């Protein structure tokens, strides 16, 4: 691993050229003879680099300095990390030459400019820039620059930076990373903090945190010079960031050009105070309470070892310590001596500690975290437990300053021990720990363990750190931002995921419908007619084409027969007539075989003659059709409109599921695919049905077909990922689910399923990332819709479907309800469920909105029962979830789909007991009715269905309610009620069964005409329903129509009519004396 500044690296010379000063306003001369000289001084990392030559200043004109200086990089004093965060400070100075009466020369600091060397770390060997010259207070430039700002003529310096070779090689550049730490503001600081005055000491507010720069070196990032501000001053958004430097002569030079602090909503942060309940407190603290402002950015250049070390340290302990303190700015020593008094002057007061959760930096693609972090009283034991560190950064920094005999308030960088030493804390005990042992009466002969020492020190700190306790009492928090130039864990780009999905499921273009059988034979015959006609026209043009030329005599209409005879003679003489017959022979044979269904020779001459006549008529008709298409420009082929569209087919398929007729449902789904195989939604519907029947292989085939047609079909991508995980193909599952999050980054369901997948893989960091993103998207959707916080609402008035992509707000957590649910087990119990339970696919319960309940809705609709069980398990420990009414309702649906009706009944009762609002939900009573209907208790089912229909608001799906209630009325003989219910069902969602129920009700009421009309409609929608034919036979028997009664009866027998209706038909046949062909 190539180090950035390892031993043996040669030094690289960095040359700084100050070319020219622009718009420099000099001081007013006392007299014309006074001489004013101007020069520029350069400084880097606290080291003076040199001064330019002194130039005579002409009023309001530029100066050509042409001054060059530099420093050596990679040596002991200037490292690449210094280049990252330290600017070159250029100071412009005016020198008033001494006159006879003056004792010494007068020196005036005009202003200062900052040159950022960061482009050198991006691989550039040279760059030029124009930097603003910030005036010092009272300088001649200050007043003039205010006027020049409006004119766009600010004083500036033209600077050029060059290096002979890149500071970083290509390998180092690709493996290094630039980290930026910004400490913004600490809010709600202790009330005892007051601004300095003439009678009060001045304080310095310091924050610090450790950061690994290389694999062997950890730096302490120290942020000094925090400014205490009074209440009532809200920090402006978009304020500039500051250099990590000490006091400068030009105050405006503190700001980094082009870098500003842009806040974001609290709910989008990663910190502690992100909940809705904390918004009022934060608004109050940021408006009406004292705060300490730093607004300072510190850059760190991490090499490959430092990046790896940072990653491993975050993985080992996700909490990162940020220490805060207040110290006096008075000197620590007297007369250059360091004694007891000096140590007391440097004691840490108001020692606080904030814990920054750095784990989000391990999320794929995350490069920045920002948040508000609570400040706690400093405690060694707490520091060890939470961060696995034993060294206080600020203590080490204070100790280093004391040893050096001066306080480096202008330094933001101090080297501390290596990572191993930081974590081990050294072997020697401190003076404080020894004193604590004495105070607590610990025997001096015994050597306590490290843990005991820390516990004793913590007990002492709890007594002594009363100042730090004020942070907790005031609820002080500090806003920190940590950003990386490159993410620690790269995120696969959407293009790569799309490519991998396409490799797993190649794109399949939609195929045009190809005719076959008789249709293909007729089309081939028409094509041959067209071809022969074209060739005959070409021969005609060769014979008589000259007559069609301009200025030629037109053909005589009376000689048409003569031209026809000449054309036939030419075709016969040339052999083309015979060739035409041979060309058409094969197509005619196919018509005979495919269309006429004749494959054997005729033995009867009359039959042969009749067949030839029939064939001749057919061929001539098709010839005219083909010639009309060829010769008519306006001819358009009209396709007969199908009787049923795809939406009706899906409706009929789900109705067949409702009644347990899986064969009929399969037929409808396949018919839908036959109509339009290029629609991925059709494949998804069929795949969800196959999940219902536990045919996972067929379901996976359907979902993959949908993805092959549309690589961005989100529901199919999610189901492919779920099935891949069930099959143990975890790499494929991750690819599908990650691709789904790229297709729709705002999808709550996609992110939640992605998080559940990572939970199954025990990847806690990635799981946390996905679930947090799901919560953010749900929260953002709630804000966009102007909704109230979902955590305060038990049951929402409406739940949006997954296909519509509408998601709402709340946060989630991690858990499982059934520990025995593991990937690969499958939904084996579905095959044992009674078919009629599957109607709940069409019943959408209005669930409470957490990310898990939103996901459960999609999973139950898709029949992914195993994953739905896992999602419900996570709902149990979700802070906004838990065992609520919405949870019980979803769990009841899951049990009903699995055929566990006792458990479903228990959960429905718990849902009603948990919330009064559930009793006003028509979907809940519809679900109760379905449960009683499945258990055979039709009386209770009738009560629940009637209550469902009595609500002012309709249930989400009224079709199964109306259908089942209507047939219950028929069974009880309440035909008038049944007729009204079926009329309503036929109006809202007509189907074969609704028309059948209406026909039966009318028949029982003696309304034969209405009954026949309804049964005819039912027969039109499905002519393979035996019961429809049976009741048509009964109507015909009552109406005295013998032939129709016999035909209907034969079809009913062929389709295996049930015995109850069959017995009624036979009894009526015996009564009227006809209707049975066997008589």
UniProtKB/TrEMBL annotation:
Composition-biased stretches, type Polar residues, lie in 408-420
Q: Which PANTHER family match?
A: CILIA- AND FLAGELLA-ASSOCIATED PROTEIN 70
**Keywords, A to Z?**
Repeat, TPR repeat
Q: Where is the composition biased (Basic and acidic residues)?
A: 421-435
**What InterPro entries does the database record attribute to this sequence?**
CFAP70, TPR-like_helical_dom_sf, TPR_rpt
Q: Where are the TPR repeats?
A: 922-955, 959-992
Q: Where is this region: Disordered?
A: 408-447, 787-828
Give the source's domain of life in one word.
Eukaryota
Short name of one Pfam family for this protein?
Answer: TPR_16
Protein's recorded name: Cilia- and flagella-associated protein 70
The answer to whether keyword Repeat applies is: yes
Q: Does the keyword Repeat apply?
A: yes
Q: Which SUPFAM superfamilies match?
A: TPR-like (SSF48452)
